[in-house]
Amino acid sequence: MSFEEVSKSLGSRTALFAAAMAGFLFAICLVVYFGISEVWDALATAGWRGIAAIMCAYLASLAFCAWSWRVLLIEKYPQSRGGLFLWARWVRDSVGNLLAIVPGAGEAAGARELTKHGLKVNVAAATTIVDMTTEMLSQLIYTFMGLAFLFAYHPDEPAAWWAAGGLAVATIAVVGFLVAQRNGLILFLESLPAKLGFTRAWEGLSDTGSVHAAIQSIYREKREVLASVGLHVVGWLAGAAETWLALWFMNHTLAAGDVLSLESLVFALRTAAFVIPWAAGVQEGGYIVVGALFGLGPDVALALSLLKRAREVLTGVPGLIAWHIAEGKRFWAGRLADSQK
Length: 341
Description:
It is a single chain. The protein is mainly alpha-helical. 80% of the residues lie in helices and 0% in strands. It has one domain (11-332). Helix 2 packs across helix 12 and helix 5 packs across helix 8 (211-219). It has helices spanning 3-34, 36-70, 82-98, 105-115, 121-153, 158-182, 185-196, 211-219, 222-249, 256-272, 282-292, 298-339.
């Protein structure tokens, strides 16, 4: 790698770090402005029982997301165990949530785990890309559901029209990404390094064994792709149940439709702010602004956001530790094998 490439890489990471720090400072300012004691009181009301409840809801969501990933290969690789995809999804979420300063790190880590347990590199990469796409499609459906409830129960709310506009733009972007995949985007990216003369084309990937070919093979199984989208929608609904439980334990219960609207709109904001690691500050501000539409005070909205952050840490840190232990075992096993040759 040249000095210029190293400089650009360091510059982009510095920018991401600066964006994350600015988001954290903004979140801290929100907590201070709206009252530390009020936010703490709301958190204390939820307590460890509330955290345990939302962790259970998250585990249900994790299981559905893993299942939606697994179902993409259920016909071609029936021998692949569901537990493998559950493990890979846990690693993917843990890395993605806690190491978000490295874009795509979670997806790369999850795909790597699949390859270390028997899947070919091109198949693991392809199923990860398709799963990301079905997840984005399911998020559009989920956001549409939330928006429908918002229009039904709050028809005069101006924010609903702004959200509808954002949903329309997001739909165009996701459909465009899907069409690009079907028309050779991944094949172009696979061959780009060789075309530019930077390096050889990906080793071990022939025309029939490329990521592009594997993606097209997965998309031909339309029933499995649709099942993946549906399972992801159920996973999103389990995420909404996480919010409903958190609010219930804080004694601020909302109707199911309002919770669905709240969560779908906040996740839409998080997605739009993907350039900011961890959506630092965006999530907190989103819960305050959107939560106000449903009668949530800023202290409760901030406490809700912090509860969800706590859940990410409590489920993500063990995932990172388990992943590093697995990587360490593979490293030392490789060293031992090399020493015995």
